[in-house]
Amino acid sequence: MGPVSRPSGGRPARGARRPAVASGAAVALSLTALSLALSTAPATALAGAQRPSAVTPPAAMSTVGGAALGRPGTQVDLGGGAPVLPKDLSARSWIVADAESGDVLAAHNAHWRLPPASTLKMLFADTVLPRFPRTEQHKVVASDLAGMGEGSSLVGIKENETYSVHDLWLGVFLRSGNDAVHVLSAMNRGVGQTVKDMQAHAEELQALDTHVVTPDGYDEPGQVSSAYDLTLFARSGLQKKDFREYCSTVRTNFPGETTVKKGRKSRGSFEIQNTDRLLSGDYDITPYRGIAGVKNGNTTNAGATYTGVAERDGRVLLVTVMNPEKKEHNEVYREAARLLDWGFAASGKAKPVGELVAPGSAHPGSGPGAKPSAAGADKGSAARSTAPASSGVGVALGITAGVLALLAAGVFLVNRRWPLPDLVRRRSRP
Known about the structure:
The chain is α+β, with helices and mostly antiparallel strands. The protein has ten helices and twelve strands. Strands 1, 2, 3, 4, 9, 10, 11 and 12 form an eight-stranded antiparallel sheet that branches. The protein has a two-stranded antiparallel ribbon with strand order 5-6. The radius of gyration is 21 Å and the shape is globular. The relative contact order is 0.17. Residues 5-53, 364-417 and 422-430 have low confidence and may be disordered.
């Protein structure tokens, strides 16, 4: 069958009545013009302005990755023998893509600019992680922890204590610790510089729906991303060995406070567990078979957001789900799991409706600078060292040979596999 575009339809804001249909050609044209202006404006134009709290996507959105991805509603081309999409998907935006080929198997409002919550930490990690070796130590000062939003998620970092970079990244990924993000940002010449670096990296990845205001994803006016962009961030980050380790770790010990007893100093630790429920499970949900990360989030404006990667039968899929309307416990994970199930069943049957684009510098003569640099998939994961890995799930075993790579010629290969954590796929519920 041919491509199907299902209109999104208006969803009333929670606690509000469904708005009446506007009448009059002038009103319709004005609304269309407004939607087009918002959807086509560069990300930098959103700075300092709160996004409208509309519950319907713009009539036209970005077409990065293909024209179909710029249309509102569900985009899918089932082809012969492909299963129908899951019913009762309530997310405002979602996408299912083949992580290796870059094919987008299906999408719903893929380029709708929405608040990202802590899924934006994937961009933070992909930007900052290569800059510090995992063994580097940092003593936290008061200014490192300044400026965090009220009610921020925290891993429990304390002033005047010393942490390794390895510890800090585990705090970012497992507990979504905004305190860990701010300490790493301070090491990276401050929050302001980190935001600039993240924005530049987003543009290099061709994630043009994204406007960064905070490095941790905390709600701020003008901070937006999209299901499409978040999927690009995950795909780029997963090329880095350390990123794969951190995002797939289920639990580990985190350094506590130093205490003094009888003149002797000692420092204990406490266990932290990943808040990604497809990875760690919960009382009402089991770990998803084949899951290997990546990042979840939840804020007042964003609702629940989630990007995950999973492998099954030699295929690696990425899924992003943003703001399910249904507010049942763990709903974002349930919808992500149903989409992954569909994606694995539809792989090789559903025809792609778009693609995940390569970074700008992957094309000769494009992107910042005149020459794209040669790089292995793990270049700049200065995080790599001979230090032992986290005490969480092991990640040394790979499921395939080879990794995604940036070649000297600047060609971004999207049909190579990276090693996903084998033990994550095989482990049973804890």
